[in-house]
Write a structure and sequence with these properties.
With 209 residues, the protein is α/β, with parallel strands linked by helices. The protein has one domain (6-208): Peptidase C15, pyroglutamyl peptidase I-like (Aminopeptidase, 3-Layer(aba) Sandwich). The chain has helices at 23-34, 51-65, 122-131, 148-160, 178-208; strands at 6-13, 40-47, 69-75, 82-85, 87-89, 115-117, 138-141, 164-169. Strand 1 (6-13), helix 1 and strand 2 form a beta-alpha-beta unit. Helix 1 crosses helix 5. The protein is globular and about 50 Å long. One of its GO terms (cellular component) is cytoplasm. Belongs to the peptidase C15 family. Monomer.
Length: 209
């Protein structure tokens, strides 16, 4: 039986602050060149660093593609590794975006849970990618930083009931090249799809008995 085609959406961010070139979008474009496995349709988007655009765009992407998984990629000036974020946070958004705006309530979803975890087991993904012997170090984090990265992640997790992931990359050359980041994203997303499919097989088996 041929596997049904699946959509995967991957986003990177546009420029902001001192990041005139945003490593996350460069890395996503490298990933697009490499592609994912054969049964996956990859759709990439550059997201502007604007709260209100994110709130409109994320639901629109889910509606348009009905993806199996959405992976958001962002840059962190403090990161020296490729970092898998476990969860998104609802409250504490005080930083102004590129439009000099921040949410009046300082939260993503009024009345939403404080924290939403991805349904993907990031520890497993991290272990598997680390075992591949790529020239990139992968680590785990529970704090995506309460700016547009965290805001986007929470919005997406809320929308998708946890079928989203977030990956932080360091700025280009600190220490990784665009190619290295693209290859790391490819490996990470393929492992995420694998972990997701296995957890779904388990759920389906339980339903059948």
């Amino acid at each position: 039986m041929e596997k049904p085609r699946r959509a995967v959406v991957v986003t990177g961010f546009g420029p902001f602050g001192e990041h005139a070139v945003n490593a996350s979008w460069i890395a996503v474009q490298e990933l697009e060149k490499l592609g994912l496995r054969d049964d996956v349709d990859l759709h990439v988007y550059e997201v502007p660093v604007e709260y209100q655009t994110v709130q409109r765009l994320i639901p629109a992407l889910w509606k348009k593609h009905s993806p199996q998984l959405v992976v958001h990629v962002g840059v962190s000036g403090m990161a020296t590794t490729v970092t898998l974020e476990k969860c998104g946070h609802n409250v504490g958004y005080k930083g102004l975006d590129n439009c000099r705006f921040c949410p009046g309530s300082q939260c993503c979803v009024e009345g939403g849970p404080e924290c939403i975890d991805s349904i993907i087991d990031m520890d497993t993904v991290c272990k598997r990618v680390s075992a591949l012997g790529l020239d990139v170090t992968v680590t785990i984090s529970k704090d995506a930083g309460r700016y547009l990265c965290d805001f986007t992640y929470y919005t997406s997790l809320y929308q998708s009931r946890g079928r989203s992931a977030f990956v932080h990359v360091p700025p280009l050359g600190k220490p990784y090249t665009a190619e290295q980041l693209g290859r790391a994203l490819q490996a990470i997303i393929e492992e995420m799809l694998d972990v997701l499919e296995h957890s779904e097989d388990k759920i389906n088996c339980q339903h059948e008995h």
